Amino acid sequence: MKIATFNVNGIKTRLPNLLEWLEREQPDVACLQELKALDGAFPVRELREAGYHSLWKGQRSWNGVAILSRGGEPVEARRELPGDPDDTHSRYLEAAVDGLVVCCLYLPNGNPQPGPKFDYKLAWFERLIEHAAGLVDGPHPVVIAGDYNVVPTDFDIYNPRSWLKDALLQPESRECYARLLAQGWTDALRHLHPDEPIFTFWDYFRQHWQRNAGLRIDHLLLNPVLAPCLKEAGVDTWVRGQPHASDHAPTWITLDLQRLKPPTPTRRRAS
């Protein structure tokens, strides 16, 4: 099984790029972020013609997340991250897909910092950490995929000096990500490529794409049930070089689900 995450940066504008990528790479599951469209504008027909079932949550002009599947239809589990009933941002979807729990997230950017946007980022991160604690040790295979808006270490950016004041590199952001991993999650891309500079995002300024001056902020985290199935991980960088491209490239993993251990049966106590 191939699972990917892709911040499309506007699904109406980038639909041709998205469809080309789906046809060429054919992920079994794709988590999308930054739809920047209301629910009624989601291209469900075009994606169905491309062979994908869709689950989505849109928002006007900002945010928005979706889960696509080539196999069984995603079965929605939740449409928001718990912990703040007043949070109206469309940033989280969770669904059962072909036996896996797939969580798609778009973590807040947090800029400018310090300020209320950075405070919101950290508060959202705390909610994620709390919710993830209930998923990491469960019996089901779980992947949390998306745009985390966090550069985990200086090795994950072309030049940290240029981004020292950015919310993506702040110690508080990195500390939250480290605490999330410490629960037992496997950062798939870094796990398989520990010594290789790998980027998933190149902004539109100062020829960053042309100079490969990128950041790694799109991550796929696997819980201990799913981590033994990990075979490959990579980035479809060719997508970033297409005309009218998103500033992100799809990031993906392949899994051998035959490695999944059957759940341990619960033993009943003798009455």
UniProtKB/TrEMBL annotation:
The active site is at residues 106, 147, 248. The record marks 149 as: Transition state stabilizer. Probably binds two magnesium or manganese ions per subunit. It is an enzyme of class 3 (hydrolase). InterPro entries: AP_endonuc_1, Endo/exonu/phosph_ase_sf, Endo/exonuclease/phosphatase, ExoIII-like. GO terms for biological process: DNA repair. Its EC number is 3.1.11.2. GO terms for molecular function: double-stranded DNA 3'-5' DNA exonuclease activity; metal ion binding. It comes from the Bacteria. The record marks 218 as: Important for catalytic activity. SUPFAM superfamilies: DNase I-like. This is Exodeoxyribonuclease III. It comes from Ramlibacter henchirensis. The gene is xth.
